[in-house]
Amino acid sequence: MKIQIWANLGVKNLERTEEFYTKLGFKKTPGQKSDELTSFLFGDDDFVIHFFKDENLKKAMKSDLSDLSKGNEVIFSISAETEAEVNDWAVKVKDAGGNVFSPPEGFQGMYGCAFTDPDGHKFNILKWK
């Protein structure tokens, strides 16, 4: 049996989301664009994250969505090969309209930074030392 896993996240503005992740260099998932969602591929194994309009995801989940200003739902980690790559990510994220809430630094045997997209979804970029 082949099992695939993907993530579904809510966003307020699909166009803004598309613009942000496109500026970061992520590829759109073929055939996954509609008035209700946009979708991107992450990493070498093409992990899929679907970004649904908040109201549509809330309706499908039959529950409220997390208030990202008060806590985390999840943090996605993206690997980097060099410290310079981590630093470049931080600049690209800021230029694309994201918020780098933890600037590049060394910690616990890693070098990394962390950011939120325009809707508050959290990601970190990590290079293992």
UniProtKB/TrEMBL annotation:
Domain VOC: start-end pairs: 2-128
Top-level division of the source organism's lineage: Bacteria
Pfam families named in the record: Glyoxalase
PROSITE patterns: VOC
InterPro entries referenced in this protein's UniProt entry, alphabetically: Glyas_Bleomycin-R_OHBP_Dase, Glyas_Fos-R_dOase_dom, VOC_core
PANTHER family: BLR2408 PROTEIN, BLR2520 PROTEIN
Protein name per the record: VOC family protein
Species assigned in the record: Pedobacter punctiformis
